[in-house]
Please model this.
Amino acid sequence: MSTITFRTDDDVDQALAELTSGDRDRSQVIRDAILSAWRARREEQIRAEAEAVAADADDVAEARAVLADMESLRAW
Model:
């Protein structure tokens, strides 16, 4: 585990004061914020990859061809 030191501004001080008004300490609030930002970034990356695949004409054509081939295997 590492220790991080950073400078805050008035907005960050206010946000930390509000977020730590309950039973959570500053360290926990900061850890949660970092993890939340990391998850949001991962979601953005995954969304971008999915959009790229969906926009790939060759991939879409292949998926349609596979679905067409599979249609003959349907039980009903």
